[in-house]
Amino acid sequence: RGCEAMSVAWYDIQQNTFTRWVNDELKLRGLKVDDVKTDLKDGLMLINLMEIISGKKIGRYNKHPVIIQQKLENLNIALNFMKKEGLEFVNIGAEDIAGGNLRIILGLLWTIILRYEINRNGDNDLLKWIQSKIPEYGIKNFTKNWNDGRALNGLINALRPDLCKDHKSLEKKNKLANATRGIDIADKEMGVDKLILPEEMIHKKVDKHAMMTYLAQFRNLKPVNPASRVRVYGPGVTQGVQDSKAPFYIEKPIDCKGKLEVKVVDKSGKEVKHDFKKAATAPRNIDKYVASYVPKTPGTYKVHVTLDGEHVPGSVFTVIVDAELSVGGAGKILCFFSTTSSNIKQRKDIQGAKLLLQAKKIHLRKDFVPWIPVDILDKKDREKIFLKAGTRTLPIIIVDDKYVGDYDTIRELDENDKLDELLKMDGQKLLTEEEHKQRLMKYNASGDKI
Fold first, then answer.
1. N or C: which end of the chain has fewer CB within 10 A?
2. What parts of the sequence cross the membrane (predicted)?
3. What's the pTM?
4. Does the domain spanning 227-322 belong to CATH 3.10.350.10?
């Protein structure tokens, strides 16, 4: 039992550190992940992460994925980009990430961190670099040599002689205090983000990769000022929908003094009214604020967040506001149904809609998407579909990212000779029925590719 607990703690430390590293990069775009096991599954965070750290644009991808096909497509786009960048990994597929395989996900993140953080300057011998800075500590590893916090304070002093001058007099028994002091000073004075916590550093099973990720920052020091320690994230600084509340959050270390200011500007350059207040709860040693605004017109908005007049990381944020909620269905026909409905009319309507649309041969389109059971969608994706439609009545039929209606609606459109035009079947290159049958064999009952 004890061994199992230590194993979990080791895994937790690595996951926590990698999550913090990802968020440290994503803050430049106002993004944040809470759990890498679940929050990478639609590909958006990985695509944004790779664009930020590579300095390159990936190209077209689905910015509003809600169904598994869209998410797998995004993940494959991200993985293919990584391969083009020269990242080497084996037995890592989009399905592993979408399925929340934590071992695979952490392995992928380590590959990314190794390339873009630890080996950033082409020198892959981090240990040798550390040994050259603090030879007196006899550093031979990235685990137990750091447990008492003394070497960390020594490294800080080697790079900044004005800090931690008393590192040699620190006592080993005060390991938590030593680690806390070093991590806090490095964060405040050197811009070394708290990718690992004091209690994790002193853990006897501290993860080697977690420590390497944290310590590599000392070799890649960035300019530091109070504003650089502020983090902003949330939909209000990434994307929005006309007439819908756009919230975002601001987190500032409690020892980071200065006046926070927020300004939101619409596409015409006019300032938009916003709310700004302190949050009811906040992480340890953090002052957290909640801000929001309601965009009245679609277009590009700019969100400024400053501390004593200095822009925080990511500011000025560019926010694309759409006229209506998107479910990533541009150019597609998406049909949602339930496999568990006990409503007799609803079940008949679902069958009727399937037969009607089959008669229109939409199943033979090359871009055909199998009918999607809402039962197997993530809750937030399912609710997004219902919000898009403005109803929970099934089936829900969406054409070119526009809600069309249910079975009664499409039947009426067909009776009035308007359905064909809406479906835009003219000019479509269709498969044969046999080719379609072969294609269906690649999907399981939930519409996922096998």
1. N
2. none
3. 0.93
4. no
